[in-house]
Amino acid sequence: MSKLAAEEKAINLSQGYPDFPTSPELISLVNEAMIKGFNQYAPMPGIFSLREVISDKLKFLYGATYDPDREITITAGATQAIFTIISALVKSGDEVIYFAPAYDCYEPTIRFNGGKPVEISMKSPDFRIDWEEVKSKVSHKTKMIIINTPHNPTGTILEKEDMLQLEQLLEASNMFVLSDEVYEHLIFDGLEHQSIARFPHIAARGFLVASFGKTFHNTGWKVGYCAGPSKLMSEFRKVHQFNVFSVNHPVQRALAEYLMKRENYLSLPDFFQAKRDLFLNAIKGSKFAFTPSSGTYFQLLNYSEITDENDMDLAVRWTKQLKIASIPVSAFYADKTDDKVLRFCFAKSDETLLKGAEILNGIT
Length: 364
Ligand SMILES: Cc1ncc(COP(=O)(O)O)c(C=O)c1O
What we know:
Blueprint lengths: L1 H7 L2 E2 L11 H12 L12 H15 L9 E4 L2 H12 L5 E6 L5 H7 L3 E6 L9 H7 L4 E7 L11 H12 L4 E5 L19 H4 L2 E6 H4 L8 E4 L2 H14 L5 H10 L4 H4 L1 H15 L15 E5 L8 H11 L2 E2 L1 E2 L12 E5 L4 H12 L3
Parallel strand pairs: 1-10, 3-4, 3-5, 5-6, 6-7
Antiparallel strand pairs: 2-8, 7-8, 9-12, 11-12
Helix pairs in contact: 2-11, 3-11, 4-10, 13-15
């Protein structure tokens, strides 16, 4: 959709990346690291000072203890961490449960490793997990369950009750947990992020995956991390050693310093909530139905009052004719479920959001 948006010179609220700059301070820190000569391979698990500050952050935010030496690894973004976790643990015939609509890399990575994807749908308009259904899908072959909170594309979050249900499920199964938490700092209305790090029984069998690209508006730098108990992390590193080995060194140096100032990530909920509110206020007179996003930088808009056209065709048509690009949510389901919802990214300048809103308000 981004390619089409560029060709059509449309307002691009489709792909999930900010159109505003990353912090000049962070850029200077990368620059400084390069000038100081940190231009050769970083150690395989990542530089220690970065792992140490991540460990402090996990303690500060979630009260969890992760040993920076053995339980945290720096990765080339979250997608690489996800690929590596699945490759390290999932073998031929293993089943992996995940929830749709889902971020696009889960299903192909499970298949690539010989696993069997078990997709469970979350139903519109609430997009909540039905834990009874999950229970019914767990079998002796279930190797892993993938959760994602705050959730792309729906903007919903898992609540404490969901985590307790997951904890219960783990009592009766040997499965592992992959917790995709790349939007951990993008959570609104005073809600609390339910990281697996808050739940010792889940954390003992789980990998937490995070992305600095999402956190600090630099998705193109592709640096993230993964935290998990040492036994699991040693399996992770056996794969990481040979498919990545070393992640961008000067960026790691810069992040290690930048993360020391907690304000740099604690300020994010207010920053993105203001963008969400600006966008939603601007379209409140439109014909779209919506529930304000609780987290991520995505907002779903239901267009069933406007047309019954399928979401794929509609997203393309509006990009070409109305010059506004979005993502059809059916693209996030294996069976292309069409609930008549489009995903809009509000990590954009206020000017872009207001221009987008003006077009959406004009649709009748
Ligand atoms: C839910 C989710 N997980 C992972 C990623 C990938 O993060 P990264 O760019 O760090 O690989 C994305 C990016 O869109 C995402 O939405």
